[in-house]
Design a protein that fits this description.
two-stranded parallel sheet; 2 domains; 14 helices; alpha/beta; 16% strand; seven-stranded parallel sheet; binds NADP nicotinamide-adenine-dinucleotide phosphate; Rossmann fold; 374 residues
């Protein structure tokens, strides 16, 4: 079996890489995993991948094999995806192509819009156009956020709707556009495809190994980090007002569950689109309370969405001029639920209750919100 994977140095891609290698080992598959990864500073793509395969957070089953054995399954194509050329046809003939690389950025800043849109859409077009001749199937990792603003129950199909979804930022819009491109282009080419969409990714939860680990702290972790640092900085905590729709929630899903689902379903012909999400979203008022309690920041108030909002102090200004402005569209959004029947039938969705959420942010705090340098 041949699999090509992009984004293996990322939060999710690294866990997909682990799951694929585990699949090869456990099922004694004579597999080849081609990783399209780039170098970073003085570190080659090989250095970066080898670090992922030999660190304290590497799954034991892989570490026990040793790098030499693992490297036999792997081939690395050291290149930026912007400029990737398809000149290794024989190697990739009949491969499943899992495209997990992406530019995750929830910025609402106008000046970043074009870059976020281009980075996410251009790469997908380049690789699909360059690789479609030889591959067996194209698997695109989207995001449940590409649903846009919705209410009620959200189904797995986002591309046969009788309305155009309204997106909250360039990232959501770009991911939706890329999904659409993949679906249309693959249909035209007669190439099987799959679109798999995680919601907001959190640390590992599926077993006790490396529990709560995640290589980069994003989205709700960034809010926690802001108030962790604010609580450390001052003794007198200034009041911060949060505009929140009290009915809404954030759908969060553990990274190892997402990777397990992707590796369980990529060969299934009966699944073309699938949201990889929790049954229930975490209520935002409760989530904020848990975060602020854990970070030790006590002085905050929840208010309704206010179009005119003057900052009442420096902490509030700092918050809304940094992470706050990008998260705000998610805090005031309408409540929605996902239909998780199909997903749960593949692998039971772990429950993310208040206690588990607290443990996740406590773990991040203990690690001072430091991302792993891969
Ligand atoms: N994180 C989330 O909460 C979340 C939620 C839903 C969906 N997703 C989707 O899941 C996928 C993976 O996200 P992630 O969380 O793993 O993101 P991430 O941690 O930011 O990793 C992004 C990956 O893409 C690679 N990449 C980006 N541009 C590239 C380029 N031009 N050439 C080569 N590699 C490039 C990065 O390589 P470098 O390491 O070299 O930069 C990295 O491996 C994305 O498609 C994202 O939209 C993520």
């Amino acid at each position: 079996m041949k699999i090509i994977l992009t984004g293996a140095t990322g939060v999710l891609g690294s866990q997909i890489m682990y799951e694929i290698l585990e699949l090869f080992i456990r099922d004694s598959i004579n597999g080849k995993l081609l990783l399209i990864s780039r170098s970073k500073g003085k570190k080659s793509a090989l250095d970066r991948i080898n670090k992922l395969l030999s660190s304290s957070y590497t799954p034991k089953i892989l570490k026990d094999q040793g790098l030499e054995k693992l490297d036999q399954y792997i081939e690395i194509i050291d290149t930026d995806l912007d400029s990737v050329q398809e000149n290794f046809s024989s190697k990739i003939d009949g491969a499943y192509f899992i495209h997990s690389a992406g530019y995750v950025n929830l910025s609402t800043d106008e000046e970043h819009r074009e870059k976020i849109f281009d980075e996410n859409t251009k790469i997908t077009k380049v690789i699909l156009n360059n690789f479609h001749h030889s591959i067996k199937k194209f698997i695109y990792i989207g995001t449940a956020f590409s649903s846009g603003e919705r209410t009620g129950i959200v189904e797995n199909d986002f591309h046969n709707l009788d309305f155009i979804p309204q997106h909250r930022n360039a990232y959501e819009n770009a991911k939706f556009y890329s999904e659409n491109f993949v679906a249309k282009r693959c249909k035209d080419l007669g190439l099987p495809f799959q679109i798999l969409r995680p919601s907001v990714i959190c640390g590992r939860l599926m077993d006790d190994e490396n529990k709560y680990f995640v290589s980069k702290y994003m989205v709700f972790y960034l809010l926690a980090k802001f108030f962790y640092l604010a609580a450390q900085r001052t003794t007198e905590q200034e009041n911060v007002r949060f505009m929140i729709n009290e009915k809404t929630g954030l759908n969060i899903i553990p990274v190892d569950y997402v990777a397990k689902i992707i590796v369980s379903v990529f060969r299934r012909d009966d699944i073309q689109q699938l949201n990889i999400v929790s049954h229930k979203s975490l209520n935002l008022v409760k989530g904020l309370e848990l975060i602020m309690d854990e970070m030790g920041y006590k002085n905050y108030t929840i208010i309704r969405n206010a179009p005119h909002f003057e900052y009442q102090n420096t902490t509030e200004k700092l918050y809304y001029e940094s992470i706050g402005k990008h998260l705000k569209p998610y805090l005031v959004t309408s409540a929605k639920q996902f239909n998780t029947t199909l997903l749960n039938s593949i692998l039971e969705i772990p429950v993310l209750d208040d206690e588990t959420f607290t443990q996740l942010i406590r773990y991040a705090k203990l690690h001072k919100f430091k991302d792993v340098n891969i």
